[in-house]
Amino acid sequence: MGEPKPHPPVKLICGMISAHEELFDKAVSLLQGRFGPVDLKSHIIPFNFTDYYTEEMGENLKRIFISFQKLIRPEDLAEIKLQTNRFEREFLYPGTEKRMINLDPGYVAAGKLVLATTKDHSHRIYLGRGIFAEATLRYYKGSFRPWEWTYPDYRTEEYIQIFNRIRHIYMKQLREMREEMG
């Protein structure tokens, strides 16, 4: 019989999409106030893979990714998604329920990148409180790789390089934690 073991801490990430680049810094400040310092912030990437967000958020959307220095427990992902949803409400177009920024939290673990979502699908696991988790990328043979359900933008070499850098930072953190524990 298998014995349950605690999962190692994981590296919190957040993807952001907005037509207003100046909101990225404001959102990062808000997120840092809740989740601690950022240790990686990607360059701004044009988000032109889908028009899913255009009606709500506008045209010429951009994306960035950040990762946080402090590691988290993977079981906290649902609550983190609920918190980022609350933060999104602080950036609504005046007099509307339309978001000016989309915040997509997730985490990097040694073998996968996981995203949180409110949308169910056959490959997503329910975490509770209306939140699902999706293993969006897997780490195999030295790099993250997509699944058949992986969003088109997350399949790009540009994104995968960012997540590989985040994983490198994370693995270094895990090694340092193990060394400290003896």
What composes the largest sheet? 9 strands, antiparallel
Average pLDDT over all residues: 97
Q: How many structurally independent domains? A: 1
How helix-rich are the residues, as a percent range? 25-40%
Q: What is the H/E string?
A: EHEEHEHEEEEEH
The low-confidence runs, each spanning 5 or more residues with pLDDT under 50, are none
Distance between the termini: 28 Å
Estimated radius of gyration:
16 Å
What does this structure look like?
The chain is of the alpha+beta class. The chain has one domain. Helices cover 30% and strands 32% of the residues. It has 4 helices and 9 strands, in the order βαββαβαβββββα. The protein has helices at 22-35, 54-57, 77-88, 157-181, and strands spanning 10-18, 38-41, 45-46, 62-72, 101-108, 112-117, 125-128, 131-140, 143-146. Strands 1, 2, 3, 4, 5, 6, 7, 8 and 9 form a 9-stranded antiparallel β-sheet that branches.
List the helices and strands and how they pair.
Elements: E1 10-18, H1 22-35, E2 38-41, E3 45-46, H2 54-57, E4 62-72, H3 77-88, E5 101-108, E6 112-117, E7 125-128, E8 131-140, E9 143-146, H4 157-181
Antiparallel strand pairs: 1-4, 1-5, 2-4, 3-4, 5-6, 6-8, 7-8, 8-9
